[in-house]
Amino acid sequence: xxxxxxxxxxxxxxxxxxxxxxxxxxxxxxxxxxxxxxxxxxxxxxxxxxxxxxxxxxxxxxxxxxxxxxxxxxxxxxxxxxxxxxxxxxxxxxxxxxxxxxxxxxxxxxxxxxxx
Amino acid sequence: xxxxxxxxxxxxxxxxxxxxxxxxxxxxxxxxxxxxxxxxxxxxxxxxxxxxxxxxxxxxxxxxxxxxxxxxxxxxxxxxxxxxxxxxxxxxxxxxxxxxxxxxxxxxxxxxxxx
Lengths: 116, 115
What we know:
- The complex is a heterodimer of chains A (116) and B (115).
- With 116 residues, chain A is mostly beta strands.
- Chain A has no helices and 11 strands.
- Chain B has 115 residues and is an all-beta fold.
- Chain B has strands spanning 3-5, 10-14, 19-21, 24-26, 32-38, 44-50, 56-58, 64-68, 73-78, 87-94, 104-105, 109-114.
- In chain B, the strands form 3 sheets. In chain B, strands 2, 5, 6, 10, 11 and 12 form a 6-stranded mixed β-sheet that branches. Chain B has a 4-stranded antiparallel β-sheet with strand order 3-9-8-7, with no helix packed on it. Chain B has a two-stranded antiparallel ribbon with strand order 1-4.
- Chain B is globular, with a radius of gyration of 14 Å.
- The model of chain B has no long low-confidence stretch (mean pLDDT 92).
- The A-B interface holds A 4, 31, 33, 35, 40-45, 48, 50, 56, 58, 90, 92, 94, 97, 100-110 and B 4, 32, 34, 36, 41-46, 49, 51, 90, 94, 96, 99-103, 105-108.
């Protein structure tokens, strides 16, 4: 089954304690991205990756890091989480939009993070 | 700058009645437009997209959307609502000139279908 898998689904942590949210896709997609969802703000892109070892900032990258060492994995790293990073996080992937026609984005189930 | 507006936070409709969820966009050139649905505690699921061609786009679960260039709108519609359609709906736009697959999302509209 084609899917994007995120872990953990739920996490409560404390300020400053480093954490990683993993994301893995089994569709051989080149493009992967992280979004955060906040009430009244919709979804905002944090980081994206066009392919292995190619990553770039989205609209709200502050406080986050990513890496893309393998095609299927795209972890989101919070080096020193703060309460304003309490949010619902989504990983998404798609085919490479190289021909100008966007591939449909497939989303994971979400990771709800609370930073105390 | 690209943007998407969903003017209604919530839409209430009775089961069996037609439903409309509104979306307007702002983007230079011809936009790529999308609708996604989010059920409680789930990720976003793709419903339909407009890239080019026929202004009426049909998607999953009986939904359709009409692209109106003059009004810069892409409203989601369904002829007969079901209680199971109750969910959070997001409109999104992608700048076709962009090199990435970045989507700009609206703030979402909660659809509540009453039995």
